[in-house]
Design brief:
Elements (H helix, E strand, L loop, with lengths): L2 E7 L4 H15 L2 E4 L10 E2 L4 E3 H11 L6 E6 L3 E2 L8 E3 L5 E5 L14 H19 L18 H5 L7 H12 L9
Parallel strand pairs: 1-2, 1-5, 4-6, 5-8
Antiparallel strand pairs: 3-4, 7-8
Helix pairs in contact: 1-3
This protein binds zinc ion (ZN) (2 copies).
The site of one zinc ion has 8 residues, from α5.
């Protein structure tokens, strides 16, 4: 079973982390280890952009990941960017160890809608599964309802369901069978 270390970075609500943990556990049949909360990621703040650089956060997650987890997932409420895009909901490296997701733009209040913690949590869960899927070698999927489909808008994100499609599941299963994914596998 894949072991995912999960941690909040800065001020992230425990209910939000619980929902993400449950979704990731169910999508990947993963074992979730709750890691000690990381600092508010102000070390990644970019004055020019007025946002946080997700690549810097990823690097730090990677450097500080405990050796006994297969993957590490950081959850933050700050708005993220990478240099070539105006924003990202999250980021991960294909076949990498670390992923980061942000609730900033997934919160309906960001877009002028009423507060809705359940909706924010559902969106963040889809995004967490998507980014972790990349770390497990999954690429973008053409099935709209699959968490691995590309979402650059909230509408695309809201079209996703919680579960990986059959195609993605079988790709993942094959990788697992070939022993490609785990550092801590017995
Ligand atoms: Zn992606
Ligand atoms: Zn898929």
């Amino acid at each position: 079973m894949i072991v995912v270390g999960l941690l909040g970075l800065g001020n992230v609500g425990p209910a939000l982390l619980d929902t993400v943990a449950t979704s990731v556990r169910e999508a990947f049949t993963a074992d979730i280890v709750r890691l000690k909360e990381g600092p508010d990621p102000r070390y990644a703040w970019d004055d020019h952009r007025g946002q946080h650089n997700s690549e810097i956060i990823l690097r730090r997650l990677l450097a500080e990941a405990p050796p006994d987890v297969d993957r590490v997932l950081g959850v933050t409420s700050v708005d993220l960017f990478i240099p070539m895009l105006s924003f990202v909901f999250g980021q991960a490296q294909l076949n990498g160890k670390a992923a980061v997701v942000s609730s900033a733009r997934l919160d309906p209040t960001f877009h002028g809608f009423p507060v809705n913690p359940a909706l924010t949590a559902a969106r963040l869960s889809r995004e967490a599964v998507h980014e972790l899927g990349h770390t497990l070698g999954l690429t973008h999927c053409i099935v709209r309802a699959c968490p691995m489909s590309l979402a650059t808008t909230i509408a695309q994100l809201d079209a996703k369901g919680p579960e990986l499609c059959e195609g993605c599941r079988s790709v993942l299963k094959e990788k697992i069978n070939r022993g490609l994914l785990f550092l801590s596998e017995s």
